[in-house]
Amino acid sequence: MKIGIACYPTFGGSGVLATELGKALADKGHKVHFITYQQPVRLNMFNANIFYHEVRVPTYPLFDYPPYEVALASTMVDAIINHDLDLLHVHYAIPHASAAYMAKQIVKSKTGRIVPVITTLHGTDITLVGRDKTYEPVVTFSINESDTITSVSENLKEETYKNFAITKDIEVITNFVDVQRFAKKPIDAFKKVIAPNGEKILLHASNFRKVKRVEDVIKVFAQVSKEIPAKLMMVGDGPERPAAEDLARHLGVAGDVSFVGKQEQMEDIMNVSDIFLLTSDYESFGLSALEAMAARSIVISTNAGGLPEINIDGVTGFMANVGDVDTMSQQAIAVLKDDVLLAKMKEQAFEQANKFSLENIIPLYEKMYSKYCRMDNA
Questions:
Q1: What is the DSSP letter of 374?
Q2: Residue 264's CB: how many other CB atoms inside 10 A?
Q3: How large is the average pLDDT for residues 53-77?
Q4: How confident is the model at residue 265 (pLDDT cuts 50, 70, 90)?
Q5: At what angle do helices 241-250 and 214-227 cross, to 10 degrees?
Q6: How far is residue 335's CA from residue 317's CA, in Å, rounded to a whole number?
Q7: Both ends of the chain: CA-CA distance in Å?
């Protein structure tokens, strides 16, 4: 199959999932064409079946805001016609679904061929950005015009139906994890650098947006560190980072907190962590939590959105209400004081992650694609 994938190339969950999907499909022999404004961050190895089409947006004095959606649609058209793509799979509704609709109509007018469009909904494109009155009509229309709609969790499916007038069925195909990649043996030397005296290691990774509540992570760690020798790694970057750094200094834990910015080799970092903290207001799924579980790190999270679909309270980690820093702190302290319980829960987290393995999920996408693939390219 020849598959076009449009996504954001950044560290967010939608871009990570789309990139990992494309890589897995390419490994199985499919031709995968990424269409975005820069090379995705996890597209860091050569594969003869992977192609990259950069969306170039010309700048003119006339435009205060260059029309990315128009340039994206034009690049989609070019890739479809010149590389004979079977279908487009767009991740994150804004602006990819509407650009795909435009590209589909242009290709039809030029060649007479109708190119199927699959739209995968990921989270804030539905729960936050897409609900804005500025975008809602276009989001609703372009989703409904998609040939197939998928969401990454049951919760997101319900939120989509609740907030948009969607007239088609939404199929849930969850996020997935490359378990073999994350289930590596921890690098002792790396762990020694982070925790030279054998301290427990807590980890948070995100894009540091307000919805992630990164200050709650710092608050939890401040309480934990009073009871348990511990270190905290804060991976990622974004608008809330300065406030989190200020809070760490204010609470007197800055010396035990490392803000390491964006990192590509997350498996090495997650492998040495004991607890992954996710304090978000909302997560449509929680891909970072799933990756941590594959690396045998337990998850302490809020019970928001789709998180209960992967993190089983008391089994793979613990859950608490949004903002309940005290409960999350107590949960972390209790499990870190009990090495037997911690080891047991780490294995249970790993077992849960295997249910969402790449090997289990990729065939679901292939089956979906096959409904639209032309026989000469099957």
A1: -
A2: 10
A3: 86
A4: confident
A5: 30
A6: 9
A7: 6
d(CA 300, CA 156): 21
Strand partners, 36: 54
In the chain the domains, ranked by start, together with CATH numbers, are 2-176+358-377 (3.40.50.2000), 179-354 (3.40.50.2000)
Q: In what order do the strands lie in the sheet containing 257-261? A: 257-261, 230-236, 200-206, 275-278, 298-302, 317-320
For 43, half-sphere exposure in the C-beta direction (CA atoms, 13 angstrom radius) is 29
CA 2 to mean position of chain CA atoms = 24
d(CA 20, CA 42): 7
Task: Give 166-221 pLDDT, tens digit per residue.
Answer: 999 999 999 999 999 898 888 888 889 999 999 999 999 999 999 999 999 999 99
* Exposed / middle / buried, residue 216 (Cβ in 10 Å: 0-12, 13-18, 19+): buried
Mean pLDDT in the chain? 91
pLDDT digits (tens, 9 = 90+) for 119-147: 999 877 676 665 677 888 888 999 999 99
- Give the pLDDT score at 86: 95
pTM here is: 0.88
Query: Average pLDDT for residues 353-378, to the nearest whole number?
Result: 85
Residues 6+ apart with CB under 8 A from 192: none
Residues 6+ apart with CB under 8 A from 256: 199, 221, 225, 230, 231, 232
Residue 347 and residue 296 in contact, taking contact as beta carbons nearer than 8 Å: yes
* DSSP structure class, residue 106: H
Tokens (6 digits) for 141: 């229309």
Residue 48 makes CB contacts below 8 A (sequence gap 6+) with: none
Is the Cβ–Cβ distance between 93 and 119 less than 8 Å? yes
DSSP string, 148-209: EEEESSHHHHHHHHHHS---S-EEE----B-HHHHSPPP-HHHHHHH-TT--EEEEEEE---
Which residue is listed with tokens 């005290």?
Answer: 326
